[in-house]
Amino acid sequence: MAARTQEKYQVRFAWGTAGADRIAHDTHLVVWVDVLPDTRDAARGADPVARARAAAGLLPDGPEVVLGHLGNASAVAERVTSLQAGRGDRCVVAVVAAGRSTSAAADVADAAGEPTDTGDVPEPAVEDLLAAGAVVDALIAVGIDHTSPEAAAACAAYTGLRRAVKHLVSAAEGAAGLERETVHAALAAGPDLVVLRESSASA
To answer: What is the pLDDT of residues 185-202, one digit of tens each?
Structure first.
């Protein structure tokens, strides 16, 4: 098992399944942030939620996993406050950005429509960084502000660029090769919170 990091913080941030292995242990909620589909997924009309559910299966056991994006940061914050009320104690959150894989093994799995745990840290993706920052910002807005330096930096990226988010995502490398309608649909994703995996941990 990889060495655990950011343990003293209530809100943590990392990239991909390898990052989740470092920060998601002993958390109560993992927010899997994935804004834009892979070009191959988009070409074959793959369901992004189904792919996110498969990715959630690769994350550390225990915490509930929800899907985060640019449109539902407030809903994520509401879920965290609800969990805290239910527990009567603080809820520790791992915000994990999917990013883009740089490994050949993951590319083969992508072509088959099946994510795989290669142990690689993915290449950062602008769209996922900004969405993760939006989630952290929403948590801070409801008073959940004991953030790791990594989470604080993601938040600063979002708040500093808030007015340009849609333009930046549309112009980002992750949007290259995608139909304009696909990018617009991702940017227009609504406030609903999708639970990718129920918690398997005791209260």
So the answer is: 999 999 999 999 999 875
